[in-house]
Specification:
The complex is a heterodimer of chains A (293) and B (304). Chain A has helices spanning 5-23, 147-150, 153-159, 163-167, 179-192, 252-263, 265-292, and strands at residues 60-66, 70-73, 80-90, 99-106, 109-120, 123-136, 139-143, 196-200, 204-206, 210-217, 224-234, 237-250. With 293 residues, chain A is α+β, with helices and mostly antiparallel strands. The N and C termini of chain A lie far apart (79 Å). Helices cover 30% and strands 35% of the residues of chain A. In chain A, a hairpin with a 3-residue loop joins strand 9 (204-206) and strand 10. Chain B has a two-stranded antiparallel sheet. In chain B, strands 3-4 form a two-stranded antiparallel ribbon. Chain B has one domain (2-139, 154-285). Classes of the chains: A alpha+beta (293), B mainly alpha (304). Strand 5 of chain A pairs antiparallel with strand 5 of chain B, so a sheet runs across the interface.
Chain lengths: 293, 304
């Protein structure tokens, strides 16, 4: 095991989905992994393949609305609460089977590096790393129940719903033996700082028709379009998806400073200096006057 | 009151930042140091990314050293020629430092090196200050002997000699130039003015009279940190002006309080206090390096 840790890692990676599938209820066969063209570890150089549209007219459809279609990052921005509400529209009587709803919000992706420290000469040094080509800077999942009970793994990997699925995009072949440990650490760290949220049971589904979800966006948000997806599931299978976007933008002073810093860095730098020089000079002048008075 | 910092892209409490600036301002007013060596590690502690903490720390030092150098220019305690030589070295060093900083960032070791630099320098300076002030405290109770103006050492045998009239020195330009380079590198890597290294070097290595040392070093620091700030802003977009402004506001108010306080306290006791404070910050940083971290994993996001 210790001599060939990558074999163990591969073993775990191969066995894990099977084990989860065996645990979950229902006898529905998930879509065949080999025919689905969404590899678990896609090459980030290639854009993600488009997710297939739903069947033309499913028996049950989800209609939903958002409390906000845009979030403005102002100077005093301190996070935001998004309310997602909706209903199930159906032309037929309520079919049998369990109905569930999953809501995800995904922030724009950014490349990141996961480092692992090791003790070298008595001090802790970053030694090993895994490059993640694109991981959402924020990802939230809310659902009507535990994901492993309401969502079949095959559908999860097709739509990339659960956290590990949403994150799987390594940059090239990871050059460490135990890449899964790094992704697990990343999920753990991101959950700890509130950038990944999993709220199983956070959605209330009333009368198999109406639902609402409250999702809190943290204060440390990146700009961009936040993709919102609302999945309607029956017996672990996705039967309808509703998509919406939340536009998160810096506004006012924040917008102006950010643009200046990146578009005109020299002017921005000179302005920062001017602020500092003026403050330094102004303060000593003001206090000299105060003392004389 | 939460404030969203546009470049750091984190939301922090404005009063925490102003308080931090104020605390460091009180220190700089009390002890006559720029405070950069305290503000940068304190910014690490509250979760500002290290690259932004270093660049913005340099910007904050500009503000505090400008007000200091103005006061010294009024008292005519700035040796402009010496300052110029130090500055020439400083600009070279600063350019080098920003380059090194960028390489370290790519290697993922920037945090480690910055922290190591802090531990080493804060430990050295804190230890020296404590020893020195304890000795001064003991000496003040005994009679004092006469000391020579300055010793002649290897520094006085180097070529390219120049007259530094304000300092009353006739020495080679090489040592001040090297001191300047060293301080410039530190300014860029650690986000500090480097006064805490330059002042001892000027007194003990160059043999400058104490009365012009502080003014001259502040003169050099103002320009080197200004240059460093510009370099960081232009090359890596890591200066957060909102963060700097909050720190500066706290800092200038704190500095005035510190100056008033300083007049009421005894100098030797003050220096012991500063030495202990420096050692405390050093110990905290050292523990982070030596103790097993809470999590051996960490995430570094890269620019999109």
């Amino acid at each position: 095991m210790t001599r060939h840790p990558w074999i163990a890692a591969l073993f775990v990676t191969l066995l894990l989905p099977t084990a989860v599938a065996a645990q979950s209820r229902g006898s529905l066969v998930p879509p065949d992994e080999t025919t689905v063209d969404y590899p678990l570890f896609p090459n980030p150089g290639r854009p993600r393949s488009a997710i297939p549209e739903n069947q033309s007219s499913p028996a049950e459809q989800v209609v939903a609305g958002l409390s906000d279609n845009s979030v403005a990052i102002t100077t005093s921005f301190d996070g935001s609460e998004i309310l997602i509400y909706g209903a199930v529209r159906r032309e037929v009587p309520i079919p049998d089977g369990e109905l569930d709803v999953i809501v995800t919000i995904e922030a724009p992706s950014q490349p990141m590096t996961i480092w692992r420290k090791q003790r070298r000469f008595g001090i802790w040094v970053n030694t090993e790393r895994v490059e993640v080509g694109a991981a959402p800077s924020y990802y939230a999942v809310a659902s009507t129940g535990p994901l492993d009970q309401i969502l079949l793994p095959g559908w999860d990997s097709r739509y990339r719903i659960s956290l590990p699925q949403a994150l799987r995009a390594f940059e090239g072949a990871p050059d460490v033996a135990d890449a899964p440990a790094f992704t697990q650490a990343m999920v753990r760290l991101r959950q700890a700082d509130g950038h990944f949220r999993l709220d199983e049971g956070g959605i209330e589904l009333a009368e198999d028709t109406l639902f609402r979800a409250d999702i809190r966006l943290p204060a440390n948000l990146l700009e961009g379009d936040y993709k919102t997806r609302i999945f309607l599931l029956r017996d672990g299978q996705v039967i309808d998806v509703h998509r919406a976007a939340i536009e998160v933008r810096k506004v006012g002073l924040e917008r102006w400073l950010y643009n200046l810093a990146f578009d005109q860095p020299l002017i921005y730098g000179l302005m920062s200096l001017a602020v500092a020089v003026f403050a330094g000079w102004g303060a000593s002048a003001a206090f000299r006057k105060l003392r004389r008075a | 009151m939460q404030i969203y910092l546009p470049i750091a892209e984190v939301s922090v409490n404005a009063f925490t930042l102003m308080g931090l600036g104020g605390l460091v301002g009180v220190m700089s007013g009390l002890f006559g140091v720029g405070g950069g060596f305290l503000i940068t590690p304190l910014l690490f502690f509250i979760g500002i990314p290290p690259t932004i903490a270093v660049a913005t720390g340099a910007n904050q030092v500009v503000a505090s050293s400008v007000s200091g150098v103005l006061a010294h220019m009024k008292r005519k305690t700035v040796d402009f020629r010496m300052g110029g030589v130090l500055l020439a070295g400083g600009l070279i060093g600063s350019g080098l430092g920003v380059l090194v900083f960028n390489i370290l960032q790519r290697l993922g070791q920037v945090e480690l090196v910055v922290q190591l630099c802090y531990v080493v320098f804060l430990g050295l300076i804190g230890g020296m200050m404590l020893q020195e002030s304890l000795r001064a405290l003991r000496r003040s109770r005994q009679a004092t002997g006469r000391r020579r103006l300055h010793q002649h050492n290897w520094v006085h045998r180097l070529p390219f000699k120049i007259k530094f009239r304000t300092s009353g020195l006739y020495i080679s330009v090489i040592p001040p130039l090297l001191v300047g380079v060293a301080v410039g590198v530190l300014a860029a890597i650690m986000g500090v003015g480097g006064g805490f290294i330059m002042v001892p070097a000027m007194i003990y290595l160059l043999g400058m009279p104490t009365k012009v040392v502080v003014g001259t070093s502040l003169f050099q620091i103002t320009f080197v940190t200004a240059f460093t700030t510009l370099m960081h802003a232009v090359s890596y977009n890591t200066v957060d002006v909102m963060l700097a402004l909050l720190l500066i506001i706290g800092g200038v108010i704190g500095a005035q309080i510190g100056t008033t306080l300083g007049a009421k306290l005894r100098a030797e006791q003050l220096r012991i206090l500063l030495a202990l404070l420096v050692l405390a910050v050093c110990a905290k940083l050292a523990l982070d390096l030596f103790l097993t971290p809470e999590d051996v994993y960490s995430i570094v996001t890269r620019a999109r």
